[in-house]
Amino acid sequence: MREITLERLNRRHLSAVRRLVGDPDVLRHTRIPEPPPARFAETWIDSYGASRELGTREGFAAIEGAGEFVGLGLAPEIDRAGGEVELGYIVAPTARGRGVATEILRLLTDWAFGELGAMRAYLVIDVENHASARVAEHCGYVREGVMRSIHLKQGERVDAGLWSRLPSDPDP
Question: Which is nearest to 170 in space by CA: 109, 108, 89, 90?
C-alpha cells in the first residue's frame, strides 16, 4: 500500500463520491439513504463544506499515492464544547482489503486528537459490519456496547455498536 493522505472534501472529488455512494456495500453499512436521492453526492459534499465553516462537521477525501481516490474519512459530529467527535470511514471498492480503512481511521484519529483537540473519539458501526469492527479494534478503539434500534433505514431499525478511543488510551 502506498501512503494515504487526507485532503478536505470538496467538489473536485464529486465523481469519485458519486461512484462510492452508489456501491451496494456502502449503502448496506452506512446511513446514506438507499437509494440515494438525485444529486445526493453534490448535496452531501456541500453540506460538509458548510459545516466546516461552522466547525460542526468535517469531511476528507482519502488519496493514495499520486492522486488515486480510495475513500472518505468523515467527522459527521463535532462537539467542540464537549471535546467529542464521531468519526467514520468509507473505502472505495477497488481499495478494499489492503488496509486502507485502517490507515484512514488512524489518520482521522490523529487529526481528532491533535488538530481538533478532542478528548474522546467514537465510531457508530452497524453490528453486521464485521470488517469495520476489525478496523476499529486494529486502531485501538474499545467497543462500549450496542445501541439497539439506533437508525431507521429502508423502513427497518438497525442496531449499531458504539466504539470509542481516548487520547490517553495506549497506541494499538
Answer: 109
69, 21, 58: which is closest to 41 by C-alpha? Answer: 21
Helices (H), the chain: 14-21, 24-29, 40-54, 100-113, 130-138
Q: Is 66 exposed, middle or buried (0-12, 13-18, 19+ CB in 10 A)?
A: exposed
Domain ranges of the chain: 4-165
Report which residue type is found at 147. M
Give the H/E segment covering residue 1: none
| Contact of 146 with 162, CB cutoff 8 Å | yes
Please state, in angstroms and rounded to a whole number, the distance separating the CA atoms of residues 144 and 160. Answer: 11
Q: Model confidence over 56-111: pLDDT tens digits? A: 999 999 999 889 999 999 999 999 999 999 999 999 999 999 999 999 999 999 99
For residues 95 and 70, the answer to whether their CB atoms sit within 8 Å is yes
Summarize pLDDT for 105-135 with one digit per residue, the tens: 999 999 999 999 999 999 999 999 999 999 9
Nearest 10 degrees: Cα torsion 95, 97, 102, 108: 20
How many whole angstroms separate alpha carbon 126 and alpha carbon 150?
A: 10
Domain 4-165 has CATH 3.60.21.10: no
